[in-house]
Amino acid sequence: MWYKYILWSIVIILAAAGQVFLSSSQNAIMANFDLLLIILVLLVNLSSFERVIWFLVLSGVIMDIYSSLPFGIFMVSYLLTAIILEALFKNFFTNRSFYSLLIIGSIGVLVYNLFFLSFSGLIYYLGGSEYFTNWRYLGAIGWQLVNVVIFLALAFLFINYLSKRFKPVFLHS
Amino acid sequence: MSRLRNRTKFMNKFFKSAIVGLVIIAVLIFLHFIGWLGPVEGLAVRIFSPLQQGTRAVSGQGKSFYDSWLKKKDLLAENSQLREQLKSNQIDVSRIKALQEENELLKKELGFASESQLKHVAAKIISGVADPYSQTVVINRGQHEGLLKGMAVVTENGVLVGKLTEVGDGFSKVLLLTDNKSKVAATVQNSDRTAGLVEGQFGLSFSMTNIARNQQIKEGDTIVTSGLEGQIPKNLLIARVESVKEVESEIFKTAILKPIVSFADLSYVLVIIP
């Protein structure tokens, strides 16, 4: 059984490597061909959602490694697309017909590009990486957390001493 | 009742899988940004590098064949025209020879890689990138060779083509000048040293913006790096001015630049180490 997972992982990795080649191709037709999205749509129709998740995480990592955008955009875009397609497949296009496959595929392309462009545009606009990868900023948030929790703990003890409005669960009242 | 139970079971499973996926992705993103995923990324690039290089070479040859096939008709017509011209023109052989000698001398003087005092690391372009809207390439040099984010990337003739945006374990990503996100501080090679910003234009070309209206710039001027960016030395050749755009209502003018090298044909580059 384990060899099936390894084989499936190898297939995913090769598909992702192929997609990197297609995306970076100078040919307009090849550059607009999304092999991973096609496989994703087929998996949503034919396989379990766990397998879909495994596919998009592994292929998304490869795509993000080869991406100039902030790491994670491909993975998140594929995940959200998969969630929407799975919901559509289970609730509306349930009969696995030719037409439902084409409609789900079309919706998948539109939804994926909507998420991808939104995230890449939003991060470019906000300069997101400057905030999320700056350790000083993250450290300051950590200190904020500590300060607020300590203050709230002290406030709780004080208010609990004066009134019975708080329920002192786990504390000796 | 059983249908409702099945549906509830499916929804629970669905949400669990989605949340597990989201958590895994969040962990991977966190590991990337703290640098722990670096060795894995470097290993992946090294493993795929031969495959990517091979497919990139095949793709380039396919493109050349297609371009040649398209140009064949034009070339045949041009060929007969040139034959006629050749018959009627007198070619000065001695003048051409003198020009050739001068050309060799100038080439030696301009020979960037051997004569420049700047340290550099040679690198090969192994792949493009996965996002279709980006003008970025991946080279086969990284942290171990002393590369840092922001360093200039030039051709063997010293023409700036981009700068490093990401440096990994055995690989780096180069943002080409034609990318929309690319911005390089530059000046014009004139007496005023007119300053501006070279910005990419949708992967097709680039222009020099933020040029003050009272500054001199004209067609044919040479644009070089200003040295105002920490990692990029000054006087690296960028492009030539093709035209200047000036609008009455705007306080800055823009120069459309003509690239000196073809960005589609890049294979080997040099990374300048300041």
| CATH architecture field of the largest domain in chain B | Beta Barrel
Strand content of chain B: 25-35%
Number of domains of chain B: 2
- The parts of chain A where pLDDT drops under 50 for at least 5 residues are none
* Structural class by secondary-structure content of chain B: alpha+beta
The quaternary organization reads as heterodimer
Largest sheet descriptor of chain A: none
Per the CATH scheme, the topology name of the largest domain in chain B is Thrombin, subunit H
Order of helices and strands of chain B: HHHHEEEEEEEEEEEE
Which whole number gives the mean pLDDT of chain B?
83
Total E-strand runs of chain A: 0
Q: Write out the CATH superfamily name of the largest domain in chain B.
A: Rod shape-determining protein MreC, domain 1
How is the topology of this model organized?
The complex is a heterodimer of chains A (173) and B (274).
Chain A lengths: L1 H22 L4 H4 L3 H12 L2 H17 L7 H19 L6 H29 L1 H5 L2 H28 L11
Chain B lengths: L1 H32 L4 H51 L4 H18 L1 H4 L3 E9 L8 E4 L12 E3 L5 E8 L4 E5 L6 E6 L6 E7 L3 E8 L9 E4 L11 E9 L6 E8 L8 E6 L1
Antiparallel strand pairs in B: 1-2, 1-12, 2-5, 3-4, 3-12, 4-5, 6-7, 6-9, 7-8, 8-11, 9-10, 10-11
